[in-house]
Specification:
It is built from five helices and seven strands. It is of the alpha+beta class.
Length: 151
């Protein structure tokens, strides 16, 4: 999540016009005034006086940001098997981004073969429980542990 959130942070600053150069190496870009990537939550930072918070609901709550209607929008994204990443600008929720990894065509059969062989298959993920269940259902996995933090 940290690498993805960092990429989204960079994109957001360019999209908002807070950077004058879209150089992916950031060597010619305006400097961030602050940047932090709390493990398992997302990223926070400031660019040209604008405060950005990008990540999961936990980081938004920690920052005192109310998500309002974005909560239901994110839940729908999760029911579709995507991870919802929230974006807040200057302390106000600005949107949600859906990110999903495609399931390889061979994965359901591989998991089924493990289960037939008598192995216990458990999905452990940092994703929200709704996202995890949606993906597990597609794969035939019964046991799911969601919201697992990296540490």
């Amino acid at each position: 999540m940290r690498i993805l959130a960092t990429a989204i942070f960079t994109f957001t600053t360019v999209f908002m016009g807070l950077q004058t150069h879209a150089d992916p190496t950031l060597t010619n870009s305006k400097k961030y005034e602050s940047f932090d990537a709390p493990s398992g939550k997302g990223v926070t930072g400031s660019v040209e006086g604008r405060k950005l918070v990008i990540g999961n609901a936990r980081i938004m709550s920690d920052a005192g940001i109310t998500l309002g209607a974005l909560v239901e929008q994110a839940e729908q994204l999760r029911r579709d098997g995507a991870t919802a990443i929230f974006v807040a600008i200057d302390g106000k929720a600005a949107g949600a981004i859906a990110v999903a990894d495609p399931i390889k065509a061979t994965t359901p059969a591989a998991i089924a073969a493990l289960q037939v062989a008598g192995l216990r298959v458990v999905m452990l993920t940092g994703d929200n429980a709704t996202t995890a269940k949606a993906v597990a259902d597609k794969l035939g996995i019964i046991e799911v542990e969601a919201d697992v933090m990296p540490d």
